[in-house]
Amino acid sequence: MEVFKGSATFSGIAIGNILYYHRGEYQIRQCLVNNVKKELGDFQKAREKVMEELHALYEYASLNHQGSAYIFKEQIKLLEKGSFTRAVESMIETEKINASYAIATTRDELAQTFRNLEEPFIRERIDNIKEISSRLITFLGGLTSTICLGKEPVILVAEELSPTEILEMEKEKLLAVVTHCGSETSHASIMAKTIGIPSLVDIDIQEEWEGKPAIVDGYTGTLYLNPDAELLKEYEIRCKAEKEEKEELLKLKDQKAVTADGHEVEIYANIANLDDLNSALFYGAEGIGLLRSEFQYLGRENYPRENELFHAYKKVAETMGDKLAVIRTVDLGADKQAAYMGIPAEANPIMGNRGIRLCLDRKRMFKAQLRAIYRASAYGNLAIMYPMITSEEELDEIEEIVSQVKAGMQEKGISYREIPTSIMIEVPAAVMICQELARRVDFLSLGTNDLIQYTLAMDRQNPLLKNKYNDHHPAILRMIKMVVEAGHKENCRVCICGELAADTTLTETFLRMGVDSLSVVPACILPVRKAVRKTIVGKKEQ
C-alpha cells in the first residue's frame, strides 16, 4: 500500500479502480497567412461552433447541475463580446498569423499576467479562457477531447481537468477526481462539488497507476493506492455511513440553527458573484453575510459604470427578498487589481494601499459604488460593509462621503432606504479599538482570513509556512472573544465571515463566546447548521 497526501477540495470517500486520463494536445505552430480574411472567417466559424456547444452544455447544466451552469454562461459571454475574442482577432489581423496560434498566445499571455492573483473571480476567468481556447483549437484542428470512462465506475486521475470534461462524462461512473494541478476554486473542483464527488489536488500522479485499486479520502486529502484488506474494510464502513449522513443533512435545509439548549445563531452565505445566489438559497442561507463586490471590477478593461453596479445589486436585493444581503464595498489593491486601475507598484502590497484606503483615495470610484448600493436598497433588504478599517478617522471620512451621496440622490429625487452599516474587523488595530468602532456602526464582521495572517505575520499563501500557519492560535481566539464582548457592550451584533466560520471544530467555541452569526460558503451551510444544532452552549463565556 502507498499513501499520497494532497489537498482536499471537496469532502467524501470513494473506493474503486483508477483511470488515468492524459489530455491529448498537439503542437501549435506559428504560421504566416496570406489570406487574413479567410483566417478570421475560420476563427468565426470555430467561435460559432463552440458557442453552440456551450449553449447546449449550459442548458444541460441548468437542468441537472444548476450550481455549475454559470461557468458555461460566463464562457459564452467571453466568446460573444469579450476582450479575449477581440485580442485574438487583432493578433490575426496585425501579425497575419494563424488562428490557433493567436488563440494559444492570447491565452498564455493572460494566464501569465494574472498568475499570482488569488482572487477567485480572476482565477475563474483565466480557467474559462483556457477552456474556451482548448475548444476553439480543438475545432480548428478537428480533434476531440471526450473521455470514455469504461464500463465500471472509476476514480479519475489527471494532471488537470476542465469542468466541461467532467460534465461530458457519465456521472454515475465517476467516483472521485484526483489532479496534480488545481485549487479549491478551480472549475474542476467546483464541478466535482456540484455533482457531489470527492476531489483532491496537489497529488503527484503517475501514469502507471492506471487500473490499480485506490481509496480517496476527501476529508484528509489522502489517496491510498493498493489499500490493504483491513483499511479497505474500514473505508467501506465509513462510505456507507457517509451516504446515510448526507441524506440526513439535506433535511436541515429549512431548519433553524438553534443549539440543543435553545440558543439561536444565524447562518449566512459568503458569495463571490451573482451566480452563487442560487446555491445560497438552495442550502437555506438566512441571508448573504458577505458579497465580495470585486467581481465587478476585475478581469475587465475599465471601471464598471454606476448603472452596471446598480443592476447587479438590485438583482441581489430582489433575489434575497426580505433576507439580509450585506454588500462589502470593493476591496481592491494588493493582489486584486487590473491594468486600467493604474495602481502603483508597492514593495509590500498586502500591507499597502488596499481596501478602504484605496477607495478613499479614489472617491469618484467609491461614490459610484455607494450610489449604486443605495439605489438598489429600495428593492430589498441590503446592508453595506467597509473593508480594512483601522481608525475612526476613516469612518469620519466615509460618513462625509455617504452624506454627499445621499444629498445628491435627494436632489435628483432618487429613492433609497437608510440601511445598516458594518465594518470588517480584519487587522489587529481594529481589534484594539473595536468598542469605539462598534459605537459607529450597526454590526461588526470578523474577517478572519486577513486577521490571522496580519496577527501571525505570516502570508497564508506562502507554502514554506504551511506547517507553521496556525489559524487556531490562542491569540486569534482571544481577539475574536474581545471583539464579541466589545460589540455587545455597544449593542452591536458580531458576525464571523472568514473561512474560520466554517470550521465546525470551533462552532461550540464561537457560540460560547456569544457570536451572533456565521457566514460561510454555501456548501458549508448545512454542516455548520448541524454542528450548531448538536451544541449545548449552557452559560455563555463572560
Properties at a glance:
8-stranded mixed sheet, 542 residues, 16 strands, alpha/beta, 8-stranded parallel β-barrel, single chain, 45% helix
Can you put this structure into words, describing what you see?
With 542 residues, the protein is α/β, with parallel strands linked by helices. Helix content is 45%, strand content 15%. The chain is built from 19 helices and 16 strands. Strands 1-8-7-3-4-5-6-2 form an eight-stranded mixed sheet. Helix 1 packs across helix 5, helix 10 runs parallel beside helix 12 and helix 12 crosses helix 13 (392-411). The N and C termini lie far apart (50 Å).
Topology, pairings included?
Blueprint: E1 2-5, E2 7-10, E3 13-21, H1 36-64, H2 66-81, H3 83-95, H4 99-113, H5 120-141, E4 154-158, H6 163-167, E5 174-179, H7 187-195, E6 199-201, E7 213-217, E8 222-225, H8 229-249, E9 266-271, H9 276-282, E10 287-292, H10 306-320, E11 324-328, H11 356-361, H12 363-376, E12 382-386, H13 392-411, E13 421-425, H14 428-432, H15 434-438, E14 443-446, H16 448-456, H17 474-489, E15 493-496, H18 507-513, E16 517-520, H19 525-534
Parallel strand pairs: 3-4, 4-5, 5-6, 9-10, 9-16, 10-11, 11-12, 12-13, 13-14, 14-15, 15-16
Antiparallel strand pairs: 1-8, 2-6, 3-7, 7-8
What radius of gyration results from the CA coordinates?
25 Å
Category by helix and strand content: alpha/beta
Describe the global form: globular
Spans of at least 5 consecutive residues with low confidence: none
User: The biggest beta sheet, please?
Assistant: 8 strands, mixed
Instruction: Please give the alpha-carbon distance between the first and last residues.
Output: 50 Å
- The helix tally amounts to 19
The average pLDDT value, as a whole number, equals: 86
Which percent range describes the beta-strand content?
5-15%
Widest β-sheet, arrangement of strands: 1-8-7-3-4-5-6-2
Instruction: Give the proportion of residues in helices.
Output: 40-55%
